[in-house]
Design brief:
Blueprint (H helix, E strand, L loop, with lengths): L16 H6 L4 H6 L4 H10 L12 H5 L11 E6 L8 H8 L1 H15 L3 E6 L4 H16 L15 E6 L9 H8 L23 E5 H5 L1 H7 L1 H7 L7 E8 L5 E6 L4 H8 L9 E5 L19 H6 L8 E6 L4 H15 L5 H18 L7 H10 L9 H26 L9
Parallel strand pairs: 1-2, 1-4, 2-3, 5-8
Antiparallel strand pairs: 5-6, 7-8
Helix pairs in contact: 3-6, 3-11, 5-6, 10-11, 14-15, 14-17, 15-16, 15-17, 16-17
Length: 422
């Protein structure tokens, strides 16, 4: 299988600019500077490159939202927050191939006529931030960032900005507020960031993996990238598999690889010979699947057809014997803690979900609690400024819809029938 991102990741020297260049690094940037910005954007559109951060919006289309007016500066922000539980693939790019990301940023900035760019990285990613700082310094010294890049007349300044480690700052408008030194609260849209973003300027926010794909697309052409994946989902994806599998880790696979194959072939199947009980397919906010639902193409459209999402590419595998009430309680504790509190349905709703699921888990559930959880979810979905309320409600609903008998047993027996294992 042809890889796009991880071909040289096993080489420890690949994060240094000399080794990166020895494998052809920055040749795509040199090629880009001889192209027109419109031609680069056309190649990204042909590639069917969908955003890898979770929403899956077509990257080339998103770039087209910037206003045609060039009288105002524009900003490119890279979302390296990666706070979704079960998602850890962007960290691999930043630690193993930081120049791949920087080259993608420089190409995108040239295509978008941007001269100011920020990598917004999660505060806890201390090692990755240090690696990025070193790589950015190397790129400046080699003339791939800064003034008059490769004698083209194009200027680009890139800054690595560390956040404080709040999950909500993975949402693009919260990220922008945090970047500006404000509280990381989401903004109402419209106006969208492409019109009014960072520091009031037109802004594009892209995920790490999304931009790291761009050098390969420029080198090989958008059509070749599109041919690797499936219709409307081009290229490969980095998929992080965690939980009870024999070989947890990050795998680069063509978009549209079968989910069952990801778990049983690439990740080595369920640990200790156990049976599979459930799969959270795209990060903790995505609706859970039963074992009879995982024989499905892992792409955005196919996952949507079965009522869930490929999301951020974080596959969490849950084995037999796990208490699904305890698993949901763990998730609800997270979302209650991470709600920024700006919107009442999210602030109160996540708190109520944590409280109700927690008492069911503790053997103190009441008749009607399950219906109450679903009612709270209905009053959260689509009623807040950002998707965090949905991110909490979707797993809560799906856990009940697909494992209702476990919630009823907890309430009926006033104890956990699975020993509270998770």
């Amino acid at each position: 299988m042809e890889t796009v991102l991880t071909t040289h990741f096993a080489d420890d020297g690949y994060r240094r600019i000399d080794t990166y260049r020895s494998f052809g690094g920055y040749d795509a940037l040199r090629k880009s500077l001889s192209m027109t910005p419109e031609a680069i954007i056309d190649e990204v559109k042909k590639a069917n490159l969908r955003g890898r951060g979770g929403a899956g919006f077509p990257a080339g289309v998103k770039w087209g939202f910037l206003p045609k007016d060039l009288s105002r500066p524009r900003v490119l922000v890279i979302n390296a927050d990666e706070g979704e539980p079960g998602t850890f693939k962007d960290r691999v790019i930043m630690s193993r191939g930081p120049h791949l990301l920087i080259e993608g940023i420089a190409i995108a900035a040239f295509a978008l006529r941007v001269h100011i760019s920020y990598i917004y990285i999660r505060g806890e990613f201390v090692r990755e931030a240090r690696i990025l700082d070193e790589a950015v310094a190397e790129a400046y010294a080699a003339g791939f960032l800064g003034k008059n890049i490769l004698g083209s007349g194009f200027d680009l300044d890139l800054t690595v900005h560390r956040g404080a480690g709040a999950y909500i700052c993975g949402e693009e408008t919260s990220l922008i507020n945090s970047l500006e030194g404000k509280r990381g609260w989401p903004r109402l849209k419209p106006p969208f960031p492409a019109s009014v973003g960072a520091f009031g300027l037109p802004t594009i926010v892209n995920n790490v993996e999304t931009l790291a794909d761009v050098p390969w697309i420029v080198t090989n052409g958008g059509e070749k990238f599109a041919a690797i994946g499936v219709e409307k989902n081009g290229g490969t994806r980095l998929i992080g598999v965690s939980g009870a599998v024999n070989r947890p880790g990050v795998y680069e696979l063509p978009a549209g690889t079968n989910l069952k194959e990801i778990i049983y072939t690439h990740a080595g199947g369920i640990r200790d010979g156990k049976a599979l009980k459930a799969v959270i397919p795209g990060g903790s906010s995505t609706p859970v699947l039963r074992p009879d639902e995982i024989d499905v193409s892992y792409d955005i459209e196919s996952m949507a057809k079965i009522g869930t999402m490929a999301g951020s590419g974080g596959v969490i595998v849950i084995p037999e014997g796990t208490c699904m009430v305890r698993a949901l309680s763990t998730l609800m504790n997270f979302y209650s803690h991470e709600s920024c509190g700006q919107c009442t349905p999210c602030r109160e709703g996540t708190g109520w979900l944590k409280k109700i699921v927690g008492r069911i888990e503790a053997g103190k559930g009441r008749a009607g609690d399950v219906e109450l959880i679903l009612d709270v979810c209905d009053n959260m979905m689509g009623r807040t400024i950002c998707p965090l309320a949905d991110a909490a409600a979707m797993p809560a609903q799906s856990f009940i819809w697909k494992f209702r008998e476990e919630f009823d047993r907890h309430i009926g027996e006033q104890k956990c029938p699975y020993g509270n294992r998770f």
